[in-house]
Design brief:
This protein is of the alpha/beta class.
Length: 108
């Protein structure tokens, strides 16, 4: 089954009311940072109807091999409330998904 993957605008996805792109029924892609936690990003994505969330690391040099693995962390309360799959990916994913084609792509 095809899944639409859509980059959030603004890219950090910290507030549902700030989403400028419709992500309902899609996997939202947001950047790490922006002043909110990973748990906040997942909950806000859920509010706008996302069926999944990819949080992209902010290391644009892709030095992931030089760092400890990152975990998508949330408070216990947030963890219980988050019902969509939420993962973290390296920054090159953002470039590969959104700078070769238009701002959205269908995968699968």
């Amino acid at each position: 089954m095809p899944v639409r993957v859509i980059g959030a605008r603004p890219e950090f996805g910290c507030k549902a009311s700030n989403y400028e792109v419709k992500v309902a029924g899609s996997v939202a892609v947001v950047l790490r940072g922006g002043g909110c936690s990973f748990g906040d990003k997942a909950l806000e994505a859920m509010k706008v109807g996302a069926i999944g969330l990819i949080i992209v690391d902010d290391d644009q040099n892709n030095n992931a091999a030089d760092r400890e693995p990152q975990r998508v962390m949330a408070t216990e309360e947030q963890t219980q409330a988050i019902t969509i799959p939420t993962v973290m990916a390296v920054h090159s994913l953002w470039r590969d998904l959104f700078y070769q084609d238009a701002r959205q792509r269908v995968t699968g």
